[in-house]
């Protein structure tokens, strides 16, 4: 997380770097085109920096937000709407070219119809998160699209009032279609409050996921979270798969090092990629149930809880022939209704004691550091071979793949042996919850 904060700060400060436009001002050359060129260059630099240091969608979005915040609020520098458009347009082009083309098409159509470029920007901005979602972009890009939509929408909302006044003029209810170059929009204060609330919710959600969801609630004495601390053994576990992009690479690495792991699989993913699920079993790894659709079971209706668990079980058994006794709830969240179903069906609820925090798409270096600093005897290590911030697929797990050999080699040098979760239970003398 420190890397993300540093990346955000660097990209924010990039706003004050006198590149093309700044040099032009120093030399006394007044050229809006040169300033826009400088904005575009900074956008390229920010995304390139994120790609070089971390290389995940989250890193790119954090870099872009840092740059955008700098363009919105930077001491001593004047805000320019055209510069904001250049930055957001360049960033979208770099992270999602197809979305940029669609957004450009929306802008062009609205511009041709209304002859106002700002109105085209407004419509393209409103459609941006929807376009991100419909083109199956990763969750963080959809969230970023909403962020950009709010920012641009706020700065171009006057176009709505202009459009409204134009319509009133056409039907004879107004004396002029355009009474002022930029009429005040009465809802601006409300919109800026909504934007601040949106950013606050993102921050709170991120803190919640990091602290509670992926580190656990209290002692959690009614689950199997950690094995014996007296023997140098650890269990590697993966959630949310199987995934055709990353699970086969992970299996290749585990085979290379002769390490057995435990895969908590989503039933729907098993149905979509049956050959990978069968390979996991064929190569001697263990399987756990991770629900059918990665639905959040905490405070869910009892009938939905039962359906998710049993449908996940059915899908896994139908494809692999395995009836697993291990269950891990999505994001580690459960309540008494979940526990009742698990007891009835003979499941052991399994969480983890050390998280790689790869769900946040952090760098390979940080994933390795998270494990090597914290791992100890009896630990259950959490990784992901699929998943996303909200959905259970289309996340980026390349850094997890790259970190895995380094972690295996590092733990082996420290004398650790790798076991499955069931083996850990047997070694620890437990058959159910942690004592």
Describe the structure.
The protein is of the alpha/beta class and 435 residues long. Helices cover 58% and strands 7% of the residues. The protein has 18 helices and 8 strands. It has helices spanning 2-13, 20-26, 32-53, 57-72, 81-95, 97-114, 117-134, 139-155, 158-170, 188-213, 247-257, 267-272, 274-282, 302-320, 336-345, 364-374, 398-413, 421-428, and strands at residues 233-239, 262-265, 286-289, 326-327, 348-349, 354-355, 380-384, 417-419. The strands form 2 sheets. Strands 1, 2, 3, 6, 7 and 8 form a 6-stranded parallel beta sheet that branches. Helix 2 packs across helix 3 and helix 5 (81-95) runs antiparallel to helix 8 (139-155). The radius of gyration is 26 Å and the shape is elongated. The relative contact order is 0.11.
Secondary structure blueprint with pairings:
Layout: H1 2-13, H2 20-26, H3 32-53, H4 57-72, H5 81-95, H6 97-114, H7 117-134, H8 139-155, H9 158-170, H10 188-213, E1 233-239, H11 247-257, E2 262-265, H12 267-272, H13 274-282, E3 286-289, H14 302-320, E4 326-327, H15 336-345, E5 348-349, E6 354-355, H16 364-374, E7 380-384, H17 398-413, E8 417-419, H18 421-428
Parallel strand pairs: 1-2, 1-7, 1-8, 2-3, 4-5, 6-7
Helix pairs in contact: 1-4, 2-3, 3-4, 3-5, 4-5, 5-6, 5-8, 6-7, 7-8, 8-10, 11-17, 14-15, 16-17
DSSP E strands, number: 8
Q: Assign the structural class, choosing from mainly alpha, mainly beta, alpha/beta, alpha+beta, or little secondary structure.
A: alpha/beta
Reading the helices and strands in chain order gives HHHHHHHHHHEHEHHEHEHEEHEHEH
N/C terminus separation: 33 Å
Which blocks of ≥5 consecutive residues have pLDDT under 50?
Answer: 216-221, 431-435
Overall mean pLDDT stands at 85
Which range best describes the helical content: under 10%, 10-25%, 25-40%, 40-55%, 55-70% or over 70%? 55-70%
| Percentage of residues in strands | 5-15%
Radius of gyration computed on alpha carbons:
26 Å
Number of helices: 18
Largest sheet: number of strands, sense, barrel closure: 6 strands, parallel
- Please state the overall shape, judged from the principal axes of the Cα atoms: elongated
